[in-house]
Amino acid sequence: AKDKGRSNTQIYNGRLSKMMSRKFVIEQGLRKAVDKREFSLLYQPIVHVQTKKIVGFEALIRWNYPVLGELLPLEFIPAAEETGEIISIGEWVLRQAIADCKSWQRGRSPIYVTVNISARQVEQPELIQRINGILAEKGLAQEYLKLEITEGAAMTNIDRLLPQFRKLQDAGVDIALDDFGTGYSSLNYLKIFPIKTLKIDRSFVKDIHKDPKQEAIIKTMAALAENLQLDLIAEGVEQEQQIAFLKEIGCYKMQGYYFQKPVPADEVRMLLRDN
Ligand code: C2E
Ligand code: CA
Ligand code: CA
Ligand code: CA
Question: Where does the EAL domain lie (predicted)?
Answer without folding.
Answer: 23-275
